[in-house]
Amino acid sequence: MSAYTDPLRLNERSLFRELKNHVPKNIKDTRNVLEIRDNVLYVWDAKEFCVVTLNVAVSLGKDGEDVGYQKLRPTDPPIFEVKNLVINETGTQLALWGNMGIVLMELPKRWGKDGMFQGGKNEILCVIYKFDHFNTSMEIRQARWHPASTNDSHLLVLTSENTFCLYECEQNNAPKLIKSWKVGRTHFGSPSKIPDFSALGDTAVDFDFATPTLRKPEMFAGKHINKNTMVDWNQIEWPILVLRGNGEVVIVHGNVLLDNYENPVVSGTLSMYPPADDNYGIDSCSIMCVQTTPPIVIIAMCSGKIYHAILLKKEANEDEDDGDSRNWSQSSSMFNVHGSDHALYVYECVEIELGLFYADNDKKYNCPIHIRCDKSNKSRYFCTHNAGVHMVTLPMVLQLEEYLKSSDGNMSVALPSLSNQSSSQYLICRRTKHTGTNEATPILGFGLLQEPCVLVALLHTGDIVARSVIDLHYFPTIEPLEPILNTAKEIYKPTKEPFDVYIKKLLKRETSQPIIKMEPKAMSPRECLQLLYHATDIFRKEHFVRHDNVRKEIGKKVRALKLMKTHLLKQLDSLMEARKDLQQTAERLAERYEDIKDEQERLAKRAKEVLRLVNYKEPSITPMERAEAEELRKIEMKIEEMKIRLLELRRKSEQQSQHIENSDSNERRKEIVFKSDQERAIKNTLNNMGKDIKDLISDVKKLEEEVSN
Predict the structure, then answer these.
(1) Which residues make beta-bridge pairs with 70?
(2) For 498, left (φ over 0), alpha (ψ -120 to 50), or beta?
(3) CA atoms within 13 A on the CB side of 316
(4) By the 8 A CB rule, do 353 and 396 touch?
(5) What's the rounded Cα separation, in Å, for the pair 506 and 543?
(6) How far apart are CA 497 and CA 197, in angstroms?
(7) Where are the beta strands (DSSP E) in 121-203?
(8) CB-hemisphere CA count at 13 Å for 85?
(9) CA dihedral in degrees (373, 375, 376, 381; nearest 10)?
(10) Among 32, 79, 183, 644, which residue has the fewest nearby CB atoms (within 10 Å)?
(11) Is the pLDDT of residue 197 over 50?
(12) CB of 83 closer than 8 Å to CB of 96
């Protein structure tokens, strides 16, 4: 690939060299198995049964060096053919869906230097949840993430039975069907030759969300909502525009995310003005609503015509004119339909060229057109189809914004003008007049890299085409995050379909070949040969083809299981090594924990002491604490005085004890010592004196007795 068609050199990466050999060769319809979100490219690998991711920003920063990619391998690969890949706004969940089924993949966390999943592991096992509510007779037409979901976990699915299914996809939980409602008559299979409504284009083929509005705008009439009034989140609704194959557009009102389980209001077919003879085509295939005020609706036809219309409310005279048709639709339908007070006002038609043709009489090519929005720039969108990729600009978006921003005096000057019409650019061409009608040239994937804007397309050959998109009016916008709502109550819990049941469904056939038991002469050899040819033809068409399909499905399942087994064995080895490392790390951490615990206790004691000192010296104290501190200060002063007095008493006590010792010693010195003869003489004298005293006492007592008598 030249530098013009691949300036990012993506085809030189090992991811796309390997993917080129894995792309199926029998694809004939345009699909979208490639998505770019936050500079990370996601693509579905049908052979490896996994989602392959590449950080494009990192690969551009390493010029000349091959950057490794990661494989997000599902735990249970889908058995149906994946045709679309849709990621929610937060990048946490990814929906893979095709006509026959849909699955939900939980995306792992990103971290590290280059923002890789789980730090840069080559293969990551991701949890898969299946939506088993869909049966074999039901096909999926479209699946979109609901923009009003506060936790970005609500997925709205449109089926071929004109039924909407709203799922709540919480992380680490299986999807729950919280609401379903009809937007048209149910398809029925009839053995008669009368065509049903699906053959007449009465089946919904696509839908999109319109600009959010208030459920009861009369409550806020004459009020400044942004300043003085707090609007309840439940009062905001996101109308849903549903496109049918015959070009009719149905609008669905009501906040489907509320927990009150109210059925949404399905309004009747929107009138389109000005009226057209062909009712603006009967081969509609895609619809998109640009989030402007009022909203701009884009409707694409398989013939290459794209109509741009503005969704507005009807006038009074228009309501009266359409009253008969609205009443007829209410009485004849098998589902609840209400008259619509809105209409589509078509202001221009853009016809894109599906392939390069050299003359007007060349046979034109028709194919379904898929509209892709540019989230960073509302004034343009892209179209992918079997003939290539187109980009269409919308000058009306800027005109409406200028009209809303203009003052009352200049509103007449700022009215949108139709002189500045939309324009289309043929970015990638896949067909010319010499291309065979049955030759497959679809676009398998489409993504946009922002700042600067680069278009990345995956061809059916496996090649990547990247082209810069130049727009002088490009201004990136940052949308604020939405608040979180409470989740809804569970209604339906899907069950997983076993693989053998799926194989039995594939082997189920409408015709059978009985055992023929007849007389040998009852049939001629020619009739026997014809019977043999007929039986052989039935076996070839009804039996062998189904067995070949079953063999392919079993082969795909075997390859997927082998890849899963190899990955799980590698994962087991890595987990065993990680277990050993964790054990060693745990031992080291235990030792460090003990050391840290001791150190923490020591530091806690120091911190406690420091805190005590800080609190003690804190100048800002309460009056009570100040009084207590003054009391403590007085007590300390008294203690000091008592210490001084105690010292004085101790000194006096020492002096007194010294004085007593001195006086005792002096008394010992003055003691009189008598001799033994003197002591006997004194003792005899004292004894005699005692006897005399005793006699005197007895005499005194006698005298007292005599005196008393």
Answers:
(1) 53
(2) beta
(3) 0
(4) no
(5) 10
(6) 31
(7) 123-126, 128-130, 140-145, 154-159, 163-168, 176-182
(8) 23
(9) 10
(10) 644
(11) no
(12) no
Neighbours of 100 (CB within 10 A): 16
427-478 pLDDT per residue, tens: 888 887 777 777 788 999 999 988 778 899 999 888 898 888 876 444 444 4
Alpha-helical regions (H) of 135-243: none
How far, in Å, CA of 280 to CA of 293, rounded?
24
> Which amino acid, residue 222?
G
Which residues are within 8 A (CB) of 595 and not within 5 positions of it... i.e. 6 or more apart?
Answer: none
| Helix/strand/coil for 30 | coil
Q: What is the dihedral of CA 11, 12, 14, 17, to 10 degrees?
A: 50
| Residue in the structure block whose two tokens are 């014809």 | 530
At 371, give phi and psi (nearest 5°).
-95, 130
pLDDT band at 325 (very low <50, low <70, confident <90, very high): very low
User: Does pLDDT of 518 surpass 80?
Assistant: no
Give the pLDDT band (50/70/90) at residue 150.
confident
Largest pairwise CA distance in the chain = 194
145-180 per-residue burial string, b: 16 or more CB within 10 A, e: under 16? bbebbebbbbbbbbbbbbbbbbbbbeeeebbbbbbb
CB within 8 Å of 504: residues ≥ 6 apart: none
Contact status, residue 81 vs residue 102, Cβ threshold 8 Å: no
- Do 314 and 326 contact (CB within 8 A), yes or no? no
Q: What is the pTM of this model?
A: 0.73
- The answer to whether 427 and 350 have CB atoms below 8 angstroms apart is no
Is 343:270 a contact under the CB 8 Å cutoff? yes
pLDDT over 80 (residue 78): yes
Helix (H, G, I), strand (E, B) or coil at 271: strand
Residue type, 507: L
345, amino acid identity: Y
How far apart are alpha carbons 567 and 564 in whole angstroms? Answer: 5
Q: Is residue 302 within 8 Å of residue 285, measured between CB atoms?
A: yes
Q: Using 50, 70 and 90 to split pLDDT, how confident is the model at 114?
A: confident
The stretch 481-491 carries a mean pLDDT of: 45
Q: What does the alpha-carbon distance between residue 153 and residue 89 come to, in Å, rounded to a whole number? A: 10
3-class SS letters over 505-548: HHHCCCCCCCCCCCCCCCCCHHHHHHHHHHHHHHHHHHHHHHHH
- CA–CA separation, 254 and 239 (whole Å): 7
Cα 106 from Cα 528, distance rounded (Å): 59
pLDDT at residue 337 in the model: 63
Token pair belonging to 28: 């004939």
C-alpha 453: how far from chain center: 25
**Single-letter code of the amino acid located at 30:** T
Mean pLDDT of 607-633: 82
Which H or E run includes 640?
A: helix 623-669
Q: How far apart are CA 177 and CA 102, in angstroms?
A: 13
| Tokens representing residue 178 in the block | 């919280």
Which residue from 141, 272, 267, 268 is spatially nearest to 208, judged by alpha carbons? 141
Q: Which amino acid is at 131?
A: F
- With H, G, I as helix, E, B as strand and everything else as coil, classify residue 236: strand
